[in-house]
C-alpha cells in the first residue's frame, strides 16, 4: 500500500506472535495501515499466539458489536507444577510428582470442568476489582479474592498425555488439549483447576487460539505477512459473516441512514445486532430490534 492510497475499512485477522500484548499488535498495525483508527476485539495473553481480531478505520465501530462469544484453543497443560500466574510466564510456586495420575482421573477432572461452570479468573489478569486491575494488586503483594463467574466450556478434549521431567527434576505430565469455550474463559484457570482437582497442581505452558466467533486461523495473517501485504476483510463481508442480514430497498435505506426507526420484519426479533444492506449490496448500518422497530447502533455510510 502506498502512502497515497486510502487505508481500507475492515477487519484484519492477525495471527498474534508470542510475547506481544494485544496493545502491541494494535500499535504495530497502526504503523502498517498508516492510521490511528485501529482497535481490537478482545485480548489475548502475551504468551499466547493465534487469532486476534482487529478493526481498521470505520470497522472499529463494529468491534463492540461482534458476537465473538465462542472461542477455540489448542494448548498444553503441565500437571505437577503450580506457578504464580497459572502459566509458564510466572514463578514456580510448588511441585508434585504427577507420574501416578491416571488417564481415568484426568478424564474425570476434565468432566468436572466441562459444561456451565463457575470459574475464578487468574489473579494475574486484567479484571478490575473495585476499579483496580487484578494483576496490579497481585504485583503489589495484596491479598484479595476474585469472585467466581459463569463460563461455558462446550468442549474440553485431551489428545495426548506425555510424560516429562521438569527442570527441577519433578516427574510431570504434559496434556495436549483443545478447548471450545465462551468469551471470558481463562484457559490458564482451567489448567490450574484441573491440577488442583488432581492434587498435583497444574499450569498452562502453551496456548494457541484457533478461532474467535466465525474467524478462524486459516484466514489469519502474521504481522510480517501483513507488513508485506495488508489483507483486510472488507467491512461488508465482515458484517455478513458476523450478523443476520437485512436487505432493504433504496427508500428504506435512506430513511434508516437518517436515523428513522422503521418497522423491522419479525424474523429479527431478539436477534441482537443486524446488518442493513442496500439494493447494491452496500453495508449501511447496524441496527437492533426494539419494540418492533429498528434502533440504530452504528452507521457506516
From TrEMBL:
Enzyme class: isomerase
Active site: 45
Alphabetized SUPFAM superfamilies for the sequence: Pseudouridine synthase, PUA domain-like
A biological process from GO: mRNA pseudouridine synthesis
Residue ranges of every copy of the Pseudouridine synthase II N-terminal domain listed in the record: 31-187
Keyword set, alphabetical order: Isomerase, tRNA processing
Enzyme Commission (EC) number: 5.4.99.25
One of the Pfam families matching this protein, by short name: TruB_N
Reactions listed under catalytic activity: uridine(55) in tRNA = pseudouridine(55) in tRNA
Family: Belongs to the pseudouridine synthase TruB family. Type 1 subfamily.
Function: Responsible for synthesis of pseudouridine from uracil-55 in the psi GC loop of transfer RNAs.
Protein name: tRNA pseudouridine synthase B
Lineage: Bacteria, Bacillati, Actinomycetota, Actinomycetes, Kitasatosporales
Amino acid at each position: 500500500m502506498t502512502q497515497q492510497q486510502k487505508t481500507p475499512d475492515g477487519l484484519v485477522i492477525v495471527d498474534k506472535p508470542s510475547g506481544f500484548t494485544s496493545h502491541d499488535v494494535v500499535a504495530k498495525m497502526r504503523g502498517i495501515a498508516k492510521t490511528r483508527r485501529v482497535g481490537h476485539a478482545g485480548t489475548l495473553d502475551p504468551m499466547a499466539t493465534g487469532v486476534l481480531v482487529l478493526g481498521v478505520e470505520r470497522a472499529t465501530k463494529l468491534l463492540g458489536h461482534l458476537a465473538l462469544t465462542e472461542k477455540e484453543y489448542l494448548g498444553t497443560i503441565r500437571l505437577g507444577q503450580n506457578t504464580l500466574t497459572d502459566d509458564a510466564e510466572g514463578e514456580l510456586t510448588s511441585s508434585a510428582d504427577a507420574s501416578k495420575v491416571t488417564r481415568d482421573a484426568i478424564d474425570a477432572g476434565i468432566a468436572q470442568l466441562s459444561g456451565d461452570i463457575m470459574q475464578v479468573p487468574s489473579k494475574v489478569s486484567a479484571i478490575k476489582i473495585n476499579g483496580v486491575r487484578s494483576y496490579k494488586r497481585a504485583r503489589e503483594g495484596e491479598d484479595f479474592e476474585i469472585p467466581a463467574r459463569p463460563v461455558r466450556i462446550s468442549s474440553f478434549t485431551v489428545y495426548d498425555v506425555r510424560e516429562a521431567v521438569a527442570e527441577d527434576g519433578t516427574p510431570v505430565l504434559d496434556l495436549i488439549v483443545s478447548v471450545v469455550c465462551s468469551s471470558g474463559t481463562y484457559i490458564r484457570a482451567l489448567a490450574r483447576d484441573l491440577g488442583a482437582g488432581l492434587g498435583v497442581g497444574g499450569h498452562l505452558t502453551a496456548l494457541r487460539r484457533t478461532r474467535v466467533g466465525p474467524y478462524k486461523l486459516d484466514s489469519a495473517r502474521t504481522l510480517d505477512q501483513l507488513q508485506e501485504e495488508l489483507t483486510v476483510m472488507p467491512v461488508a463481508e465482515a458484517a455478513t459473516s458476523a450478523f443476520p442480514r437485512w436487505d432493504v430497498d433504496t427508500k428504506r435505506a435512506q430513511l434508516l441512514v437518517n436515523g428513522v426507526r422503521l418497522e423491522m420484519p419479525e424474523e429479527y426479533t431478539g436477534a441482537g445486532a443486524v446488518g442493513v444492506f442496500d439494493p447494491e449490496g452496500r453495508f449501511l448500518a447496524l441496527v437492533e430490534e426494539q419494540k418492533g422497530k429498528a434502533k440504530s447502533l452504528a452507521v457506516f455510510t
